[in-house]
Amino acid sequence: MTEDTTKAGYAAGTTWTPVVREPTPETRALERFHPNGTWTGTVEPGGMGVGSPAMDATGRARCEWIIDGLWLSCDFEQDQYVGGKKVLTWKARWIAGWDPVAGEYRAVGVDSNGASFIFGGKIVGESLVMESLSESPVKLRFTWNASDPRAIRWKNEISVSRGAYRLIEEYVIAPER
Fold first, then answer.
1. Residue 1: what pLDDT?
2. 33 located within any domain
3. pTM, two decimal places
4. Does the residue 69 lie in any domain?
5. Phi, psi angles (nearest 5°) of residue 5
6. H or E element, residue 3
């Protein structure tokens, strides 16, 4: 081993062994919370910003396993309505999986609002709970409850400056059969 590799943190006399990751039961557990399907639900008044009205919403998800089945990649699209009139279509890409180094679920996402986010989380009973990991005073918490696999309940909550979480939006996802 050269002096450069020893300085880089490798102990003298050690050899590198490649690590080939395969999907674990933790990885596959995500599938029940992220089905291909459609949803309906509501956005709370103020949920899309100060002064925003209550909205009805319909959406759709397309998810597929990527990178040798280690990560679930989902495209989300949602139409939002005020008084029956469509006011916008929101889109997002969400990639989630089990991070064995962190020992928790991790997800990254980007959306049509120009936002990017990183989440960490865990499965608690019948729910997957993911919370944003940034240093921002604004925190998001997403919860999927799959106690009824035909009607998965999802909610998005927000906390500002470490205050209590409040509901932004809530949906019932109907998986495709």
1. 45
2. yes
3. 0.86
4. yes
5. -70, -30
6. helix 3-7
